[in-house]
Amino acid sequence: MKLELEIARRMAAASKGGRRSVMERIAVISVALSMAVMLLSMTVIMGFKEEIAQRMGAVASHVVVSDVRSVQAVDRAHLRATSHLDSLIASVDGFRRLARYALHSGIIRTQDAVEGVVLKGVDRSYDAGRFATWLQAGELPRIGDSIRTKDILLSRGMAQRLEVGPGDRLEILFVDEQTAPFRDRFKVAGIYSSGLDELDDAIAFTDLRNVQRLSGLEPDQVTGYEIETRDLAEAPSFAAALDHALLYDESDETINLTAQAVQSLYPHIFDWLKAHDVNAVVILVIMLIVAFFNMASALLILVLERIRTIGILRAVGMQRGAVRHVFLYRAAMIALRGLLWGNLVAGLLCWIQWAFAPIRLDSEGYLLSAVPIAWGWWWPVVVVGFLAAILLLMWLPASVAASIKPDETMRYE
User: Fold this and answer.
1) Which of 7, 69, 277, 286 has the largest CB neighbor count within 10 A?
2) What confidence tens digit (pLDDT) does each residue in 279-338 have?
3) How many CA atoms lie within 13 A of 326 on its CB side?
4) pTM listed for this prediction
5) Interior CA angle at 387 toward 381 and 392, to 5°?
6) Which residues are bridge partners to 150 per DSSP?
7) DSSP for 71-135?
């Protein structure tokens, strides 16, 4: 097909600078805009999905092991942390790390506000790197020190509502059905924000031993395990395998335990993320249709302008398939120019947002404070798929050129 490519190249060179290049420029701009919109939409959509899923996995962990009775009594249901249970969890394929935690609910009282709170006690097995990333003010609580600490880490939203800050002391009232109400004092060590205010607002972190003391638990008793898997996408399958292992384990200490993936604990958030897939498909289809109609219009005009040339080529013996290839090459040249400009524009805008985040969001409505940008393998796939779809759709207007007969070109003399 070297002859067809050379003819297409010469036709493109002859049209430069003339009036016939106007439609080509319109087609190039259309492809460039369509490509840029598609790439920008995909980077934002994938950014939302990856960023929120990653934060969900960090805040709520990938898989949670707890007592089935914790649904009815979060403060009373507990399990015994043993080496057997640790080994059983670690034996499931996909395991990466585990952390123990304990929960106890209470009511924070200040002079001007009252807030319900769930104290989440963690020890050194908890990923402290999360706290370092989330910390916005103050210092990290001294979790796991030999000296019992009563530091707590409050969420940004709760601290604002209570009008407290690092260094302030809070009184928390605990109401237990089996004992009389009692209160305890804690020091606010720091203010944190994971970016998911919906989950942050009810949780205050502290040392595991504080919650064990408040709940009357023994040193080896906890509310549950938080498990991190190799990949968040593996969490449902990991939870199912672990749940099966717990069900058929012969030890009495695992009889009431169940494993749940974060996707089943917060289905409304992950269903919202799945809705982004529909948005992505709609945007891709609309942009492809827009580019197709503009490219088809440009190619048909090029065919009309080159009817005499087509008649000469057919008269000297060029087959219909070869003529079709000539105009497919012309369509490919136009599409490649549009793709180049579209990639440059989309890449520049994405880099600006990724580096400087000039477009901000309301974290209460979107769960994130800035428009997220995700780079991934799908970028070249979208570009190549778009080019292939355009060339496939261009087969129809190119076939119009191939169907012209030499004798019909005489009317254009």
Assistant:
1) 7
2) 878 888 888 788 778 777 776 777 666 667 766 676 667 777 777 777 788 888 888 888
3) 25
4) 0.71
5) 120
6) none
7) GT-TTT--EE--HHHHHHHHTSTTEEEEEEEEEEEEEEE-SS-EEEEEEEEE-TTS-HHHHHHHE
